[in-house]
Fold this protein.
Amino acid sequence: MVKKTILAICTLFLLNIVAPILEAKALTFGELPIKQTSKQWSVQVDKADQGKGLVKPEKGKFHTYSLEVDNIGKDILSAEVHMFRNEPNSTTKFSLFSCPDEKECNKEHFERAISLAKQLNDGYPYRFSNFLLAEKATEFEVEIIWTQKGMEGRPLKETFTFTAE
């Protein structure tokens, strides 16, 4: 009887030590805004804009944030911004937005990339004011693909990764 009691106490003690270590971490930003920069880009995650028609966070499902990408380097010819989140226990990353009609997106792809580059070169950042991020995500990735003046036709890519604390 004494051995069973000691075994039970030791088991509970070990579970209290191991359980917090095994706990999955969700991606939450304790302090906003959070910013990462490189020689070319500034990427900032902040609180989502609130308002009529904008999605609101849903406890247990997703958080909402805003994103601002600013060109702080050399002038560019074209630019694309992609956002991804991870899925626990998977190596696949999921895009946070897509195009409802892929044919139309592919058709206008080049014009949008040129237009975004002009906007960024003129000092106006790319702003995504309200996007969803699943609570189960532990990683948020912003991928920027661009072409630079003087290097026409050669795409460059930079990835900014925000992870759970």
